[in-house]
Give the backbone structure.
Amino acid sequence: MKLKFSFLIIILLLSFQQSISAQTNESESEDDTQIVSVGGSAEGKRYFSNVTRGDVKNTPSWDLLSGKNPPLSVKDAIGAAQDSLKQIVKDLSDWEVTDIRLIPQVKSEKWVYIIEFRSKMEKSNDLDGQFFRLIVKMDGVAVKPELLVSETENLGIPNSPKN
């Protein structure tokens, strides 16, 4: 009986603690709201990166209707993305920029660039070819892509030999 009562008290205390945590972290969870998520494939590996409201909270703002240029130039955004891609691919000269987008955060003047690269080594009609999309914030910082675990690694099947 004493054990059941102790167990009940522990459960109640844990629920109360979670309730307080949820209330105090309400504003933090808003910062965790994802703005955009992108991915890429290079040299047989898949990557992803995402950016949240919290990630852009302290970056320069930009009002599209102001008539002014964004705080980060396209040239500087491409440079930041290239620097990030250099950390992943063997030869950056095998890659070219194929798309540049400005993505807004909803109800805010916070924006990010999405810079897309495609491998020059792939056939032009190969939709599954090597490509990479990188996020660059208006402070000039590229979001570092994270390596995804492949399905074969999850199943314990050895990967194909590396080039």
User: Anything to note?
Assistant: Confidence is low (pLDDT under 50) at residues 12-28, 159-163. The chain is about 30% helix and 30% strand. Residues 1-31 form one domain.
